[in-house]
Amino acid sequence: MSHLPLPKSALYVCVDDDTGHRSRLEAITADTIVIAAPADAKKLVAAEVGSHLTVSWINEDGRVVLPVLLERITTGPAERWHLRPLGEPRQAGRRRHERGGGGEKMRISTLTAQPAVTFNSTLLDLSEKALRCWAPASDIAVGEELHVQVMLSTGVVSHIGKVTIVREAPDGIGQHIVVSFHSLPAPTVQIIRRYLFVWSSRQARQPEPATTPDTAGADADPASQAPQSRPQSGRTAAPARL
């Protein structure tokens, strides 16, 4: 493993939210890194063996992040976490969370209308903070709260979020909607991290097709283009009432 800081360097561990829990690099082996358990480790209920975490540190160019798997915890006078890197360290840019995936069928439900109105939609991409989906044209507006549900290969994400972007799809059929999640429970964060790890591993093994991305992805960054299979007529959503 290359580009890691020196032993005894300060590290920060992101477990289930944006908080960086201070730690320290203790050792580097052939395929793992060993860190000191954060001082507040006992309060981090999501830090279980098998969890996907992120470690970060600061170098001369800024913040560096590394996705890892918590393989083992050793106790004793000083608790140690044994982490297996799931990629190479990378310089962190504006986007704080990995984003990708897409193609799964999903449902979005309004919360303001009673009874709730549910639309079938298609996931375009997602991160730990937001998702972007395609949906039929409707009167959903920025600031509205929605319930979203999507079946990923690693589990079901079912949560409430706030609409932050609504724009016409590039081909003029339907809309692209970005929903920022309210605080996600730790199990849901793990479902998303595992899904993105599988997706990114698959992407690394195949050349990327040429696309013309839309500019409003989850986290409001460029993302994959909209899926090809959509309703071809009508500009009014045909919701299914619960």
From TrEMBL:
Regions of compositional bias (Low complexity) in chain numbering: 209-223
Source domain of life: Bacteria
Listed name of the protein: PilZ domain-containing protein
Biased composition annotated in UniProt, kind: Polar residues: 225-235
Domain called PilZ: residue spans: 94-197
Record-linked Pfam families: PilZ (PF07238)
Region (Disordered): 82-107, 203-242
Species, as recorded: Planomonospora parontospora
GO molecular function, one term: cyclic-di-GMP binding
